[in-house]
Recover the amino acids of this structure.
């Protein structure tokens, strides 16, 4: 492949950048999926998650990485996002040109190292000119076939050819290909202008989904719609699903602190925990609260400011969350406004988030027949207002901000309640959260330690820079990391904040397999740690050593406030690794995490 000055430009602009957290596992899974295609290991995947949970960011990063870091698999990225909110559906001819030009654009960009072709979304005619300039016989032949198929009287042949040619050419030209399609559910409603009918194109991907040479990775933001309509029928069983969940607790904190630094806000540990509980880790909700146009967040770390901010974002037309949910549910206005039944059932469901919904109980409380309630819940499931964890059971909305938005809109518009009556429950909720935040600092410190340790990958790093010891320190890839407060050994209570174990290389498998361990103490006090706390840690460690024979033991003491000189000398003399806020934050940065907030 040719190289030029553009080779390091990302073909798709990375709009998430340093705010990409807790999605590395999915990124690595799909990287392996794509790079295994030459070994004929590829199966088609569906990446499923609510809107704005990070699906598109994963696909963008995957495509950019495939573009730059390997040269065996052709990465093709095609997005139908621009069509999902359009009033008129995508037509057969629009689909064919969009899909075909997307393939050609990615091929030419990858083959000739011209990422600008993708970044600028070079149009159909210019792509053809580019192929002529380079005399690319493969692409010129494809254009000839495309034009021939486009001249057929009924567009079905063109559509069918466009969907299936990548797998055929991948096999005959020894060109393993990863086809990445964003917003796949758009293809369930495509208009054929010749026959004047609407049809579901997703069934036409049956053969494309089954090939090893050019498997598909598709995503969609309407969870139930994608799973139960776009990936059923002829596609049933042909995709392996990967569900994208909200951020884990520690990663939600990581995102909160990153956004706070970017926005020049002070977020205390207690406030970070409150934001996590109010959002349940949904990344877009966190983003909107910390980047609100209201500027209320400038009053942080006041909890009153958080109260006011939630109210603003969910009730004010200038709020980012208000606009997000309004746009989301405008698409389903017919379902949401179809009589009192839908309104009553939806409002009832919001009162019991994450709980199984008893349809008989709902029917009794709102005075509607049980079959009608069940039909309404099924309709609400299709637009992701309620979830269906079992074959017959339903569950209230798990996204807290969405629940509050629905509750407010329907209570004000349908029940004709005053805004102050609706938000009173929100205020009580924040008060309850505030009443359980006393342990937030220590909890976040321990979570961060465990999070960073999960990133250890076998490398050795400079001891003086990160752990206060003169030699380099090996960071093993742990097999098990646990919080072990409240451990009882020989009748004595033992408090070890983190126990992280790994199997030593070369040791035999089975019950005699040798293990190493890191025993970690994490302190989050305002005052520096003294020698007494160090000796207490020694005593706790001795009890753990008596309970289990480890082949290698490493001790690490983290104190956000640092150590007294006497304590630091004791740690050095004993060969114990130790870190304060600054060195721990540098360690966190080394593994892609934002450090703990400096202020308390």
């Amino acid at each position: 492949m040719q190289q030029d000055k553009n080779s390091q430009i990302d073909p798709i602009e990375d709009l998430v950048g340093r705010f990409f957290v807790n999605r590395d596992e999915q990124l690595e899974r799909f990287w392996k999926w794509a790079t295994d295609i030459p070994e004929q290991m590829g199966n088609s995947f569906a990446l499923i998650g609510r809107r704005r949970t990070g699906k598109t960011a994963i696909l963008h990063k995957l495509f950019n990485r495939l573009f730059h870091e390997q040269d065996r698999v052709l990465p093709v990225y095609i997005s139908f996002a621009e069509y999902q909110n359009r009033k008129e559906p995508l037509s057969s001819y629009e689909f064919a040109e969009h899909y075909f030009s997307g393939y050609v654009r990615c091929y030419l960009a990858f083959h000739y190292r011209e990422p600008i072709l993708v970044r600028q979304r070079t149009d159909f005619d210019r792509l053809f000119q580019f192929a002529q300039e380079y005399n690319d016989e493969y692409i010129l032949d494809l254009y000839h076939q495309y034009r021939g198929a486009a001249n057929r009287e009924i567009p079905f042949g063109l559509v069918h050819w466009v969907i299936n040619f990548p797998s055929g050419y991948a096999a005959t030209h020894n060109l393993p290909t990863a086809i990445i399609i964003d917003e796949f559910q758009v293809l369930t409603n495509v208009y054929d202008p010749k026959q004047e009918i609407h049809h579901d194109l997703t069934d036409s991907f049956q053969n494309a989904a089954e090939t090893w040479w050019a498997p598909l990775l598709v995503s969609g933001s309407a969870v139930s719609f994608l799973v139960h309509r776009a990936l059923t029928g002829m596609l049933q069983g042909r995709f392996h699903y990967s569900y994208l969940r909200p951020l884990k607790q520690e990663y939600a904190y990581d995102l909160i602190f990153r956004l706070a630094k970017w926005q020049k806000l002070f977020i205390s540990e207690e406030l970070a925990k409150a934001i996590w509980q109010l959002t349940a880790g949904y990344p877009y909700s966190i983003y909107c609260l910390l980047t609100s146009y209201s500027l209320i967040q400038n009053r942080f770390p006041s909890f009153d400011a958080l109260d006011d901010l939630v109210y603003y974002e969910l009730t004010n037309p200038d709020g980012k969350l208000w606009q997000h949910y309004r746009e989301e549910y405008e698409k389903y206005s017919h379902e949401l406004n179809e009589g009192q039944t839908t309104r009553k059932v939806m409002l009832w469901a919001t009162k019991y988030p994450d709980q199984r919904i008893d349809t008989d109980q709902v029917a009794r409380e709102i005075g509607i027949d049980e079959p009608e309630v069940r039909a309404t819940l099924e309709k609400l499931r299709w637009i992701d207002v309620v979830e269906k964890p079992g074959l017959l059971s339903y569950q209230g909305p798990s996204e807290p901000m969405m629940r509050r938005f629905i509750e407010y809109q329907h209570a004000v518009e349908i029940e004709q309640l005053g805004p102050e009556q609706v938000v009173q429950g929100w205020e009580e909720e924040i008060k309850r959260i505030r009443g359980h935040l006393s342990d937030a600092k220590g909890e976040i410190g321990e979570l961060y330690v465990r999070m960073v340790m999960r990133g250890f990958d076998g490398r050795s790093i400079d001891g003086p820079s990160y752990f206060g010891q003169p030699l380099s320190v090996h960071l093993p890839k742990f097999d098990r990391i646990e919080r072990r407060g409240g451990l009882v050994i020989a009748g004595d209570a033992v408090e070890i904040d983190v126990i992280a174990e790994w199997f030593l290389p070369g040791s035999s498998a089975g019950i005699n397999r040798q293990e190493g361990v890191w025993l970690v103490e994490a302190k989050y006090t305002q005052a520096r740690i003294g020698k007494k706390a160090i000796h207490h840690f020694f005593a706790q460690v001795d009890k753990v050593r008596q309970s289990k024979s480890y082949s290698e033991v490493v001790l690490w003491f983290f104190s956000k406030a640092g150590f007294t000189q006497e304590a630091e000398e004791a740690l050095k003399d004993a060969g114990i690794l130790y870190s304060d806020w600054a060195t721990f934050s540098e360690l966190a940065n080394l593994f892609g995490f934002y450090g703990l907030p400096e202020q308390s």
Notes: The mean pLDDT is 85. The first strand starts at residue 45 and ends at 48. DSSP finds 25 helices and 17 strands in the chain. The two ends are 53 Å apart (CA to CA).
